[in-house]
Design goal:
It is a single chain. The two termini are about 15 Å apart. It contains 12 helices and 16 strands. By secondary structure, the chain is of the alpha/beta class. It is about 30% helix and about 15% strand. The radius of gyration is 22 Å and the shape is globular. The chain folds into 2 domains: about 270 residues, FAD/NAD(P)-binding domain (3-Layer(bba) Sandwich); about 150 residues, Elongation Factor Tu (Ef-tu), domain 3 (Beta Barrel), CATH 2.40.30.260.
Length: about 450
């Protein structure tokens, strides 16, 4: 049987992964990406798989949810994870990448594939060709958002995502900073900027009094818990930051031999270490206020801000209402959705959705039934959640052990994590052997 071409709209992590999964199975792909002709409020380049929020892909510990997700993606032949491993830079226990090299690696792999044709143009209306994968991400263009809203028949859901500032390494006062990872895990991969109680209180007061950028009159903020701006967290209480992004636990200041009252961690943004990301400091403060407030941190008094924090609207659909666990649109099963537009939250979660959507788009061209991994796997649990949660109260979800089905035996702590991980990988391996042999 002659294979059909598959169209993929969106060249982010999900779209790139979907295109790879289709092309690697011998079917031609037309991949649409509107950048650089049309940029989003957050993207800066025209490369595929650009990382806009952080260069960290979270923990690589195999007993964590994100660590399990990575191993599942590796087992299924993920292009994105392969590129991440190839361009990794030190980041403690996290898988951290040089974002420029990472995006270049994904772009190179896809553009060198003779079965992938990349078209740089904006798609404003859904094409009639099927199968079709929609992976336009959380920053779907206004025109296509309106098209999807009309087709889906209800209001688009959305939340706000904030980006952390990046500072120049050479501008940091190293006399007020020290390299270390919490509890010594992963090496001295974070530059820690400690604050005394008095310094923290001055910083905190300035932060809660600073001016955020105004929202449009028709928009109301609804922040996803994992991406709340630092100023929003601070307004929840004076000590909230001390249990969040500024927590000092697991760190000892070598100058004093004691744990700091508060600490700001900086993570390498590139392999050379010339740029550092303010970990957990996503913000929508006005640029002058970011400079004024964040410079109250002793190590950052003379900091050069290479990129200020910013905030953008992230769009996602009501997946429980519209999608099957295979990521097919209920109304037109030859249309599949992938990535953050489905309500998965996170880089590799988006990649996982792209992998499954790409696999199923290919299976449709072969007249084979679409599939998805068992619910006992992290990928399967994510897809099950976003398509079977309450449609009335649907919110984005990232990988976490809490969405996995309970174990058949009593277990807690590290034993529970180990058993959940072993079950997931064993079940995924059996599923892969069955599905990929067809």
């Amino acid at each position: 049987m002659r294979a059909k071409k598959v169209m993929v709209i969106g060249g982010g992590l999900a779209g790139s992964e979907a295109a790879h999964q289709i092309a690697s199975r011998g079917t031609e792909v037309i991949l649409f990406e509107m950048r650089p002709q049309a940029l989003t409020p957050a993207h800066k380049t025209g490369v595929l798989a650009e990382l806009v929020c952080s260069n960290s892909l979270k923990s690589d510990d195999p007993l964590t949810a994100s660590g399990l997700l990575k191993r599942e993606l590796e087992m299924l032949g993920s292009l994105v994870l392969k590129a991440a491993r190839k361009t990794a830079i030190p980041g403690g226990s996290a898988l951290t990448v040089d974002r420029r090299l990472f995006s270049q690696e994904v772009t190179r792999s896809l553009k060198q594939n003779q079965r992938v044709r990349v078209l740089t143009e904006e798609v404003k209306k859904l094409p009639s060709q099927r199968p079709l994968v929609i992976a336009t991400g959380p920053l779907t263009s206004e025109a296509l958002s309106e098209e999807l809203q009309m087709l889906l028949g209800d209001e688009s859901l959305y939340f706000y995502d904030a980006i952390a500032p990046i500072v120049s390494y050479e501008s940091i006062d190293l006399e007020h900073a020290f390299w270390a990872s919490r509890y010594g895990k992963g090496g001295d991969d974070y530059l820690n900027c400690p604050l005394s109680k008095e310094e923290y209180e001055i910083f905190y007061q300035a932060l809660v009094e600073a001016d955020p950028l105004p929202l449009h009159s028709f928009e109301e903020p609804s922040f996803f818990e994992g991406c709340q701006p630092i100023e929003e967290l601070a307004r929840k209480g004076k000590k909230t930051l001390l249990y969040g992004p500024m927590k000092p636990v697991g760190l000892v200041d070598p100058r004093t031999g004691r744990r700091p009252y508060a600490v700001v961690q900086l993570r390498k943004e590139n392999a050379e270490g010339t740029m550092l990301n303010m970990v957990g400091f996503q913000t929508r403060l006005k640029y002058p206020d970011q400079k004024r407030v964040f410079s109250l941190i002793p190590a950052l008094r003379r900091a050069e801000f290479l990129r200020y924090g910013s905030m953008h609207r992230n769009t996602y659909i009501n997946s429980p209402r519209h999608l099957m666990p295979t990521l097919q649109w209920r109304r037109d099963p030859e249309v599949l959705f992938a990535g953050q537009i489905t309500g998965v939250e996170g880089y590799l979660e988006s990649c996982a959705a792209g992998l499954v959507a790409g696999l199923n788009a290919w299976r449709i061209t072969k007249e084979m039934p679409p599939v998805y991994p068992p619910a006992t796997t992290m990928i399967g649990a994510l897809l099950r959640y976003i398509t079977m949660a309450s449609a009335a109260n649907f919110q984005p979800m990232n990988a976490n052990l809490g969405i996995l089905p309970p174990l058949p035996v009593e277990a807690s702590g590290e034993d529970r994590k180990r058993l959940l991980t072993e079950r997931a990988l064993n079940h995924l391996r059996s599923w892969k052997d069955k599905v990929f042999s067809n």
